[in-house]
Fold this protein.
Amino acid sequence: MISLNNIAEICGVSLGTVSKAIGGKPGVGEATRRRILTVAQQHNYRPNRLVHSIQRGRSMMIGVACNRFDDEFAGGMVTGIFETLFEANYDAMVIYWDRSVQKGVHVLNSLAERRVDGILMFPPASYPEGSYLDDLRSFPNPIIVLDQAWPGCEYDFIGSQDIEGALLATEHLIELGHRSIAHLGCRHTSTGEDRMKGFQKAMMRHGIAIHEKWVRDAWEPPFEDAYKIAREILEQPERPSAIMTFNDMVALQTMAAAHDLGLRVPTDLSVTGFGDLSIATPVRPQITTVKQDPEEIGRRAAQRLIERIEAKSEDQPRPKLIQDRLPTRLVVRQSTAPCQSAQ
Amino acid sequence: MISLNNIAEICGVSLGTVSKAIGGKPGVGEATRRRILTVAQQHNYRPNRLVHSIQRGRSMMIGVACNRFDDEFAGGMVTGIFETLFEANYDAMVIYWDRSVQKGVHVLNSLAERRVDGILMFPPASYPEGSYLDDLRSFPNPIIVLDQAWPGCEYDFIGSQDIEGALLATEHLIELGHRSIAHLGCRHTSTGEDRMKGFQKAMMRHGIAIHEKWVRDAWEPPFEDAYKIAREILEQPERPSAIMTFNDMVALQTMAAAHDLGLRVPTDLSVTGFGDLSIATPVRPQITTVKQDPEEIGRRAAQRLIERIEAKSEDQPRPKLIQDRLPTRLVVRQSTAPCQSAQ
């Protein structure tokens, strides 16, 4: 790639003149400026943003700390992030941060060394522990947390109304006459914890007993264990007539378990998902679920981060911590129906 | 964040001394070195990799040009890429390059301006056109293309044995006695084109007629149109007994169309997918499909790119262009069965 020095040599002018001409600054004759710009274009000159970053003390680069790349929901958030960063002329450096932790590397070293202006953070699958949190605290620029929070989280958070969404799904089952309702959740994450709370809230509001043996965890993505656990619940002599699940993949595994035991969904068992992922509609029965908006979560998180970065560079006081939870909405499809034993 | 200048001030030494101490270079007394390192650690000093990048003429940063982030297959490749880059101590800058093109921005500007050492490129959904290709040609460092190639592609390519995989799926249907076989493909992509070739090859090898009306395209992800097209094919008075599809999402839409028309899969219709995505096993019937290895594609692409970058910096001759296609494998599940009319 051609450098400013090369251009100066070709045009027979000083480096300073080339720098002024390309930067659009005064002090260069019109003919010289044109000649310099023509040579730069012919040789496909590209400004060096590394130099600009050092000069300006702002890298215009955002760090995105991800944990999984094959998850549709996280991918939706990333899409929203990239749309917003692109519009605002920021670039993005991505790290695979659970992997860094496994390898004993300080999670944010590379982002700090590249001088990113801020971080958009997808928390690890489980709650972050001491070394994560210490690393985060040592990072000098703004951090925004997406989707999953943790107890005592000291950062701005953008996510979904998980409690409310779970409440809607559970009340939908209750309205259909279900009283024996199980919950197949994911309580070691904050979204799982909140969806569990929404489930409990709905059950308590309607005075319906929660059976401990019917409240279980589906473990990690891709949630293959959910099949086994759903099957265990459904093989008991006394089984629930409905299962409210953590997300659409867990719902799908639950429906598979029901199918393999000869139970018809929704006639013998109603199932709800969460997320409204792209699998919710092509499967039969289509999954009744709670719609989230991952792209909007990504957009808002990126916007908020940019605001924080700009407030910081203008030495404005640090804005008050926010928790922004986007509304969720029930989408009734084919996997839920009136309770047979109630009719 | 503390700078080398700040450390020099605190320790009452010169900037040069601090730089030597931190860089592990000689010329600093042991006590002074220890004091400098202690101060650096206490104040959480982080080296500035932007400065190193400029000094070394290598950014140790790779550009990853993506088009979709919510696609499980692409996500698998990204996972493999990040594993490999992490091991080799490279960082990754990600761009959303179809979006850049829509906005009329030169697709690779930001990667060139950040001086990335090379690019891992996920081609756009359709074949790249003139301005894409011109932009790529103006990029001075190595480029590796993943998954989707295009006619006349001038870069190293890492992907799957798509033709062979499609041949396996089609021959599996033929062995089950099917003769009326449709193909629901995606011919505006290279993988779609190759899977179509594999289908044709198998049909020709066994002397089976291909019906033009049964060879259709499923359009773009998430392939909702596939449902409509599968339905059109299955509503005809004369319908196929099997459909070989472009990927697992198209297979799922095809199974939904069959279900809604009262056709049982696999009794009345056999369906094959491609990819072995995480939806292939929790759905009922489980999808017979062709297994690919997206993570290994990502790992090999990143390894190849690093080799090319290092060969370049050592002024070795440019290595011969490669096309590395990873094997695919048939996985027989529940969505295919012997042809009823053949029995």
Observations:
- The longest strand of chain B covers residues 61-66.
- Chain B is about 45% helix and 15% strand.
- Chain B touches chain A through 59 residues (CB under 8 Å).
- The mean pLDDT of chain B is 90.
